[in-house]
Amino acid sequence: VSSMLAAVGGGLKYHHHEVGGAGEHEIEVAFAPLRVMADQSMLIKYMIKNQCFRSGKSATFMPKPLFGEPGSGLHVHQYLADRKGSLFFDKNGTARMSKIGLHYIGGLLKHVDSILAFTNPSTNSFKRLVPGFEAPVAGTYSIGNRTACIRIPGYQRNPKTYRMEFRPPDGTMNPYLAYSAMLMAGLDGIKKKIDPGLPLDKNLETLSPKEQAAIHYLPTSLNKTLDALERDHDYLLAGGVFTEDMLENWVRIKRAEVAEVRVRPTPHEFEMYYDL
Questions:
Q1: Per-residue pLDDT for 132 more than 90?
Q2: pLDDT of residue 166
Q3: How much is the pLDDT for 265?
């Protein structure tokens, strides 16, 4: 699959086995502008599924297809740039981030609950966002900490591509909507100069109860992130990027998905309750 993607100009950076079972792999492609990357995201999923089908197998981008195994995310690296390179780099800034970069992070963290309505838009999405599997559960940012919502990769060496990584998203997203929602949140942070504070480079599981209480944790269900979107969406409407009717229809469609899952018994319910 990786050879095929490289052959069609996918801009493959690297690939490797991941820690999950059933042949979980990670593939990273080269940076590209938002719309181009959204196009590539759709194309890559299409090609992977068809190549696996031709080999008598199947590929899934479900966030949590297997209980007890790490889920599959779609981590989104982001930076704003001019002709000279990334606007996020400042060798003297916090975590070598410029004020623009920090404010961008601040916007993402401020609006994170509603952003997840687009980056994690399935009921299965929230079975992945649980403690213990290197998946983000807290609205924090850090350097290298994989349980943080936003990670500033510690291995970065090139100022021209200096970036942050938003880790909650998964492959059930519509990339055109999800990438746009993240960008709008980041731009809102820049416009309003939202300060994200200092990075939290601690293991969440070792924090004291007082420290835990000060942390904002991500929504734990699709319904909760849809509630957040209904409360917090003005930043998406700026410049007419999103519209009220589009958001209303998105919420309606996603509420229907929640209802469909809610009324159906699951195999685990049979395990728990069949013989009672």
A1: no
A2: 96
A3: 94
What's the pLDDT tens digit per position in 180-214? 999 999 999 999 999 998 888 777 777 788 888 88
Report yes or no: 120 and 173 within 8 Å, Cβ to Cβ.
yes
CA atoms of 1 and 200, how far apart (whole Å): 37
Record the tokens describing residue 211, joined without a space: 């420290």
Model confidence at 159, in pLDDT bands (50, 70, 90)?
very high
Cα–Cα distance between 214 and 236 in angstroms, integer?
27
Percent of the chain with pLDDT over 90: 65
Which one-letter amino acid corresponds to residue 7?
A
What type of residue sits at position 4?
M
Residue 11: other Cβ atoms inside 10 A: 15
Take residue 272 and report the two structure tokens written for it.
Answer: 């728990």
Closest CA to 72 of 125, 114, 142, 35: 125
Q: Are 31 and 162 in contact (CB under 8 A)?
A: no
Contact 127/72 with Cβ under 8 angstroms? Answer: no
State the residue for tokens 């399935």: 122
What is the pLDDT, as a whole number, of residue 179?
A: 98
- The predicted model scores a pTM of 0.92
Q: Which residue in 13, 16, 18, 48 sits closest to 32, CA to CA?
A: 13
CB 152 within 8 A of CB 142: yes
Contact 150, 163 (CB under 8 A): no
DSSP 152: -
- E-strand ranges in the chain read 12-17, 25-29, 76-78, 81-82, 85-86, 138-142, 148-151, 164-166
Side chain identity, residue 267: P
CA distance 57 to 206: 41
